[in-house]
Design a protein that fits this description.
Number of strands: 3
CATH class: Alpha Beta
Structural class: alpha+beta
Mean pLDDT: 90
CATH topology: Alpha-Beta Plaits
Distance between the termini: 25 Å
Helix content: 25-40%
Number of domains: 1
Shape: globular
Strand order of the largest sheet: 1-3-2
Number of helices: 2
Amino acid sequence: MQQKILIRVTMTDDKTRAKAMNKAVQFTGVSAVEIKGDQRNQIEVTGTEVDMIGLTKKLRRKAAFA
């Protein structure tokens, strides 16, 4: 079953956005990643059986504060 997850991430520049998207795409079960929001500070992840907590932890450690 497809799920959509919206995570608010503190991203100040394009380099941080690219890094966060790269880390999210590498996560198991993720099929698509999009930047959303007025300030481009949200990541929408689409996939099957995605571990939300694991993904959020990975983004916190590797890219930016989520």
